[in-house]
Amino acid sequence: MDITKTELYRQWQRDHERIQRGLHMPAETKEQQHRRKERARRDYAFFVSTYFPHIARTPCARFQTDAAKHILDHPNARAVFEWARGHAKSTHMGVFVPLWLKIQEQRQFYTMVLVSKSEDSASKLLSDLQAELQFNELYNHDFGQQVKAGNWAEGSFVTTDDCYFVAVGRGQSPRGLKNSGRRPDYIVIDDIDDDELVRNPKRVGQATEWVLSALFGTMEAGRGRFILVGNRIAKDSFLTRIAARPGVHHTTVNILDRQGNPSWKENYKPEEIAAMRAMMGERNFRKEYMNDPVTEGAVFRREHIRYGKTLPLNQYRQLVCYTDPSFKSSATADFKATMLVGITPDGHFHVLKAYAAQTSVSDMIAWHYDIMDFVGGRAPVLYYMEANFMQDLMLDEFAKAGNDRGYHVPILGDKRAKGDKFARIEAMQPLFERGLVLFNEKEREQPGMTVLEEQLLMIERGSRAHDDAPDALESAIWKLSQRSRASNNRFSTIGRPSRRY
Predict the structure, then answer these.
(1) If DSSP codes are grouped into helix, strand and coil, which group holds residue 157?
(2) What global pTM score does this model have?
(3) Which of 102, 160, 361, 469 is spaced 20 to 30 Å from 440 by Cα?
(4) Domains and CATH numbers, the chain
(5) Angstrom distance (rounded) from CA 415 to CA 159
(6) Residue 59 CB: number of other CB atoms within 10 A?
């Protein structure tokens, strides 16, 4: 047994002890036991919480029970469950669901193949399954002793009712797998993608070809359940290719739903997700937890985002404060963004202040007063906000804040017909590459500047990543460019304005 197998074996022993500590045999009548078994067969959430309290420390989420029911109801299921990290996809599809199928009165499968990126990874997942079958006292009490022969460490085992379980690594030959003449009829592919694989489209294609030919071909003319679980770590990955196949049942679960609430609210709190998001950064968070991988530097490269010393405020030809607001403050809503940008005498753009957050209107208004305090009376500033946001409630909020403070933000509506957002933001890229945009080095650690930098690096056509801070920056630069052209035609700013605006 090599070192990896030794480590896995020790983990299996710890699983054994954990299972025994977590379960207690109930004092009950035969009738009570019968009712529990009957309910467990039809109620997946009850099954999980009753037999696996040592694993399932929080109740099942709706998406988990829906997935289990779909698999039970479809003997020839072809399904991709694209769930964010930390949503128990391996545990449900590789342990709970097959053990639930196994207790149904009508037999559901004979041979389960568990596939992962390596044989060791697959064996570890198989060890979790065998540990439950071997040491889960309540499961065995209700449904009979399970393990008959074999060992997960050798990659396979058989149960007393002649169910065969086998682990297979990505690319290994699964040909010839049979159990008493029966071919695999429950195949689970678990997190087969990895960062190295998805960087090479040829390898992604080879993995897809292996799954659709050698692995899927082990089933008897496609009879049986074929399940893939994972999260989308790249735009071109094994998961994305399989999910696009015809007839595949595909569900996506992100850590936050469309309203910005935790999808698994029984397990995660909004504030801990927000803290994790801040720590990871937006790009990593979207990749690992929102199934939205973004290629850093697809348009704006990190080395082109420069920080340096800015000028005294009275030396800028013009200062513009531009705000791109949003109406919602939930975790999935657009960011409110306010940028203070100045244009130098030689036509460079300095980002002096940056504010960007998923926050309230009152916080956004406070940013403007912070900017007014920062500028003082040293230079005039033109304040703009999109005209369609300058209506009713938004104007009322600015007016109330001004009345409370004793002075008002002289904000103007920007009525420009802006056109395609990505094209406008992309048009700033030559300015960054030529060193014509400079960020205030004194503001480098401020949250708004960090958000602006992150969002610039995530700009990519078709991406769902937020882009409100770059949009506000583009609008500020455009305003400065237009005013500079009007007063002095020497300055050429954004790349092909006649086609962009």
Answers:
(1) strand
(2) 0.70
(3) 361
(4) 3-253 (3.40.50.300), 302-500 (3.30.420.240)
(5) 71
(6) 14
Question: For residue 61, what are its two tokens?
Answer: 């989420």
Q: How far apart are CA 490 and CA 311, in angstroms?
A: 21
Query: In 10 A of CB 278, how many CB atoms?
Result: 12
Q: What is the distance, to the nearest Å, from the Cα of residue 396 to the centroid of all Cα atoms in its chain?
A: 37
Whole-angstrom distance, CA of residue 151 vs CA of residue 165 = 10
Q: How many other CB atoms are found less than 10 A from the CB of residue 12?
A: 21
Which DSSP helix (H) or strand (E) runs through 150? Answer: strand 147-151
Query: pLDDT tens for residues 60-117?
Result: 999 999 999 999 999 999 999 999 999 999 999 999 999 999 999 999 999 999 999 8
Place of tokens 């056109």: 419
Per-residue DSSP letters for 439-452? EEGGGTTSHHHHHH
Query: What is the layout of strands, in order, in the sheet containing 186-190?
Result: 147-151, 156-159, 164-169, 111-116, 186-190, 225-230, 78-83, 249-253
DSSP string, 162-185: --EEEEEETT---TT--BTTBPP-
Question: What is the Cα Rg of the chain in Å?
Answer: 29
Interatomic CA distance for residues 85 and 67, integer angstroms: 16
CA angle at residue 461 from 458 to 467, to 5 degrees? 45
Comparing C-alpha atoms, which of 427, 150, 89, 465 is closest to residue 296?
A: 465
**How many Cα atoms are found within 13 Å in the side-chain-facing hemisphere of 348?**
21
Q: Which amino acid is at 459?
A: I
Helix runs in 23-164, H state only: 30-42, 44-51, 62-73, 89-91, 97-102, 119-135, 137-143
Question: Is the separation of the CB atoms in 368 and 402 below 8 Å?
Answer: no
Q: Which residues pair with 256 in a beta bridge?
A: 262
Strands 164-169 vs 318-324: parallel, antiparallel or unpaired: unpaired
Q: Which is it for the CA torsion 44, 95, 244, 224, positive or negative? A: negative
Burial class from Cβ neighbours inside 10 Å (0-12, 13-18, 19+) for residue 330 reads middle
pLDDT digits 0-9 by tens, 375-429: 998 999 999 998 776 555 677 888 889 999 999 999 888 888 888 889 999 999 9
Instruction: Say which residue the tokens 């829906």 belong to.
Output: 66
